Amino acid sequence: MKRFGIKIKGIVKNADRFLLLQKWYDDRITDPYQWEFVDGELEYGIAPDAYVRQLVKDSTGLEAIIDGIPYTWSYALGDTQIIGIAFLCHVDTDMVILSEAVSDYKWASAEELPDYIENRGILRDLERTGIIDIGGEK
């Protein structure tokens, strides 16, 4: 039986800064709180573009405007193939109202992203698609 899951990532910008959220992932790892872009698993029956706007609104109170899909990704997790869609979005304000599921937020410049994003694949994807240029990654 073929099984699929779809992950949605919202890369939210305001001017030249990116919105990062600090969320709790797993208390079995060294640092259970990690910085990441807005993300979630697509729910059945919801269009991906509507879902990313909903994710941003629910997590931050911000109204996101989608600029495009700069990249996709894929990986296997057990017997499930996970497909990811990254949406580049912008917002017209930096006034964030966090949901209870998010512990903190930060507006970070492209140069600061390597200090927060632990998944270097995300940074490579952002650089490969021209969204950021961090050159000598930290």
Q: What layout of secondary structure does this protein have?
A:
Blueprint: E1 3-14, E2 17-24, E3 33-36, E4 38-41, H1 48-60, E5 65-77, E6 80-90, E7 102-108, H2 113-116, H3 120-128
Parallel strand pairs: 1-6
Antiparallel strand pairs: 1-2, 1-4, 2-3, 2-7, 5-6
Q: Can you summarize this structure?
A:
This protein has one domain: Nucleoside Triphosphate Pyrophosphohydrolase. 19% of the residues lie in helices and 43% in strands.
Share in β-strands: 35-45%
Q: What gross morphology would you assign?
A: globular
What is the tally of beta strands? 7
Number of helices: 3
Share in helix: 10-25%
In the residues, how many domains can be counted?
A: 1
| Mean of pLDDT | 91
- Tell me about the biggest sheet? 7 strands, mixed
> Could you tell me the radius of gyration in angstroms?
15 Å
Structural class: alpha+beta
C-alpha termini separation: 42 Å
Write structural notes for this entry.
By secondary structure, the protein is an alpha+beta fold. The chain has a single domain (3-128), classed as Alpha-Beta Complex (Nucleoside Triphosphate Pyrophosphohydrolase). The chain has three helices and seven strands, in the order E-E-E-E-H-E-E-E-H-H. A hairpin with an 8-residue loop joins strand 2 and strand 3 (33-36). The longest helix has 13 residues, at 48-60. The mean pLDDT is 91.
